[in-house]
Amino acid sequence: MKGVFLKQFLKNPTSIGAICPSSKALAREITSKVELKSALNIAELGPGTGVFTDAILSLKHPKAKFFSVELNENMFNLMQKRFGDHNGVTVFNDSATNLKNMRNELMMEKLDVIVSGLPWASFPESLQDSLLEAIFNNLHDEGYFATFAYVQGMLLPAAQKFKKKLKQHFSEVEKSKVVWKNTPPAFVYRCRK
Ligand SMILES: C[S@@+](CC[C@H](N)C(=O)[O-])C[C@H]1O[C@@H](n2cnc3c(N)ncnc32)[C@H](O)[C@@H]1O
User: Fold this and answer.
1) For range 6-32, the mean pLDDT
2) If you measure from the C-alpha of residue 175 to the centroid of ligand 1, how many angstroms do you get, rounded to a whole number?
3) Which pLDDT tens digit goes with each residue over 31-40?
4) From ligand 1's centre to the CA of 15, what distance in Å?
5) Taking residues 33-59, what's their average pLDDT?
6) How far is 24 from 111, CA to CA, in rounded Å?
7) CA–CA separation, 160 vs 49, rounded Å?
8) Would you list the domain boundaries of the chain?
9) pLDDT tens digit string along 118-141?
10) What backbone phi and psi angles, to 5 degrees, belong to 119?
11) How far is the CA of 122 from the centre of ligand 1 (A)?
């Protein structure tokens, strides 16, 4: 799966935004402390090869509704191969900006938890804004939004600006400890509406 990831990164560096998938350690961190076990409606944005999807599936309630949305067609095909027969998750080939359509298709209430694997740092500000708007509008009151960032990227003004945007949108924004067992090391922002 690392090979597929690198190939897609070389073809679409801005939308893939990483040279290899996240580690299981980061998957554990991003899915913790967001009340996943009691969530009824869950979405994942930008699953790539499905590292966070595995973690969500292992934690979520069997009756919880869960969808994952992947923009890249090759990554989507891989996700379909891995999870297409799994009745715990529906995978869409679409942009995360269209969250509402997917929720409607599955007749889901507003989301209790949204887990993001999106590469925010490589997105233009206009795309960051429309994604954050979609996330905020589709999240239940007091719902959780979890996303990650690379430690080394925090030196850049764009990363500071993104952190400010999170604080403008959400009532609580908490930064996790650094997950060193990830290439490159990363941390999680846990945000609450
Ligand atoms: C950095 S990779 C992370 C993949 C995986 N979550 C992980 O951590 O290993 C980002 C993923 O987001 C997807 N992506 C980028 N823009 C997207 C969008 N607007 N909607 C849905 N997925 C998107 C990319 O195709 C890629 O698979």
Assistant:
1) 88
2) 21
3) 999 999 999 9
4) 7
5) 97
6) 24
7) 28
8) 2-192
9) 999 999 999 999 999 999 999 999
10) -85, 75
11) 11
User: Which residue has 């990830």 as its token pair?
Assistant: 182
Contact between residue 31 and residue 102 where contact means Cβ atoms under 8 Å apart: no
Position in ligand 1 atom list of the atom nearest CA 119: 1
Look up residue 172 and give its two tokens: 């609580």
Q: What pTM value is reported for the model?
A: 0.96
* Residue whose entry in the numeric block shows the structure tokens 């980061």: 26
Q: Position of tokens 């694997």?
A: 117
Which class is domain 2-192? alpha beta
Question: What residues does ligand 1 touch, defined as CB less than 6 Å away?
Answer: 15-18, 21-22, 45-48, 51-52, 69-72, 75, 95-96, 117-119
Contact 33, 63 (CB under 8 A): no
Pocket test for ligand 1, best of 70, 78, 115 (most atoms within 8 A of CB): 70
